Amino acid sequence: MQKILAGLLLATAMVAPAWAQSDVSAKLRLMTFGGEAQVKATQDAIARFNEDYPNVEVELGVDPISGGWGDFVSRVLQQYNAGEQYDVYHTAVETLQSFAARDMFIPLTDFIEGNADFEDFDPKLFELTAYKGTTYFIPSTWNNIMTNYNRALFKEAGIDTPSKTWTWEEFADVAEKLTKRDASGNVTQFGYEVPNFFFGLMPWFFSNGTSPITADWTASNMTDPKVAETLQFLYDLIHVRKVSPQVGQEGVENQFFAGQIAMISRGHWIVQNAISSNLDMDIAVQPGRVNNNTVIGFGAYGISSKSQNVDLAKALVTELLSYETQVAEGDLGGAVPGRKSAAETEGFLKFPPSAPLYYETLPSTQAVPSPANFQEVDQIFMRYFQAIMTDEMSIPDAVAAADQELTRSFERLKRVTQ
To answer: What does the alpha-carbon distance between residue 118 and residue 121 come to, in Å, rounded to a whole number?
Structure first.
């Protein structure tokens, strides 16, 4: 199964039991993403789908998203241009406006309203899938960034469980206490890892009441003084307090699982690896400056506007969003189930100890900024963020340059979408 994560996997899943309810013959192509939990749950859902549609072959493609969601958007655009698109895509919030703005997926508003079973999903998730008043995607599972921490290291340092209202300064003090150095001053255990990806960084901006782009995702917000303030805090964690490794290092998550980093900002997707590593891990809310808000990102299913089998695609999506599939994804350590009922099972709640916090913090989440030019926003912001953290540029210079590039990107977007 590990080979799935190494690259694009194409697998065919088809079951033909004798009690089939439909004799329709067709082929559907499904593209998904994720690790072992997601793939296993998807394969099982396809098998259940084939119990009703034994003569429908479902070709499953798995994309590891190794280059980020911006690269994924580019790959899907290439598929459409070459006439090699899939019927159903499991994608993420970062891509939704990019795809919807190009009319690449069919509207699903009527389909959703006509399916009472979707009422089990939190309404906030559906709100985040709309584009210009129309819903093109149905949410599946989601992740909100939490502070994942090593309970054994906290106990060893005599540090209490983080409160639900802890502050940036309290967090920084804890990170200092958890950072260890040898006799030569070399760090042997870091207190925290400053994230090196857009999604992981957003809670720091949100908890300071700001964001790199405006709240309506239409313009740069880099000149907000709180953006520079947030960048300075993260810079200081690395260069002044020296509680975090430099950004861009390989194997950071493995260092966390090995007990060499005490705290890390990640979503539910790391739970299975934490269990496999026998890590005594728990989660805490995002430290706050003006609030304790965090970021949410979620997977969602969309049906290609070029699909020749829309009704079958809808039937497949229905099974992919079923209670059975959602429970499997959550219990196997994938993302948080979109169905609240699937997040209340014993399997989901058994680890980490504070697992109820995932849903408890949902009201205080903000969607990762995902305008139709997300791939450019992501690349521009991260390029200047890395330049700041590696001392290649000062914060004022990088903020100004990023603001100019983002502004030009949004101007190009307006010309395309107006």
So the answer is: 6
Q: Which two tokens stand for residue 72?
A: 């994924």
Please name each of the domains of the chain with its CATH number: 7-144+296-367 (3.40.190.10), 146-295+370-417 (3.40.190.10)
User: Which residues, including other chains, have CB under 8 Å from residue 49's CB and lie 6 or more apart?
Assistant: 56, 58, 315, 316, 319
pTM above 0.90, yes or no: no
Q: What is the pLDDT of residue 70?
A: 79
Percent of the chain with pLDDT over 70: 94
Q: pLDDT at residue 9 above 50?
A: no
End-to-end CA distance of the chain: 45
Give CA–CA dist 13/11, Å, rounded. 6
How many Cα neighbours within 13 Å face the side chain of 321? 29
Given a contact cutoff of 8 angstroms between Cβ atoms, the answer to whether 343 and 336 are in contact is yes
pLDDT in tens, 14-27: 333 333 468 899 99
What count of other Cβ atoms lies within 10 Å of the Cβ of residue 157?
16
